[in-house]
Automatic annotation (TrEMBL):
The modification Phosphohistidine is found at H55. The keyword Amino-acid biosynthesis does not apply. Keywords: Phosphoprotein, Two-component regulatory system. SUPFAM superfamilies: Histidine-containing phosphotransfer domain, HPT domain. Residues 9-115 form the HPt domain. One of its GO terms (biological process) is phosphorelay signal transduction system. Coiled coil: none annotated. It comes from the Bacteria. One of its GO terms (molecular function) is protein kinase activity. This is Hpt domain-containing protein. The keyword Metal-binding does not apply. It comes from Pseudoduganella dura.
């Protein structure tokens, strides 16, 4: 692998990673905020906010070394999108998905850099 031209390349990457790390609590709060008003079942607007908040984490976490955080956000985002696309809008999967999202938030609050996903029981 060729060396980067910028001698401060690694320091710059570290600074970006640190900025992302500092933003994780706000990103998790955005997911929690989108989740909080979601009743049983949530309406389409609530699901769209939740999907967007998860998508933001899923799209950027891996780039900054938060691979598992991003992978789990992507998994949950896809599940939310699946609910949004259900025919008839019956939200049959919501009761199972809600605790998964809450477990993700709890896990991320402990160590968002973790390399394995072991949600709280």
């Amino acid at each position: 692998m060729a060396a980067p031209l910028d001698p401060n390349y690694r320091a710059h990457l570290q600074a970006l990673g640190d900025m992302f790390a500092a933003s994780v609590p706000a990103r998790m709060a955005a997911i929690a905020d989108a989740l909080a008003p979601a009743g049983t079942p949530p309406d389409r607007e609530q699901l769209a906010r939740l999907q967007a908040a998860l998508h933001t984490v899923a799209g950027s976490a891996g780039s900054f070394g938060f691979t598992v955080l991003g992978e789990q956000a992507r998994r949950l985002e896809q599940a939310v999108r699946g609910l949004m696309n259900e025919h008839g809008g019956n939200m049959a999967g919501w009761p199972e998905l809600l605790p998964q999202i809450q477990a993700y938030l709890d896990w991320a609050s402990d160590n968002p850099r973790a390399t394995t996903y072991l949600p709280h029981d």
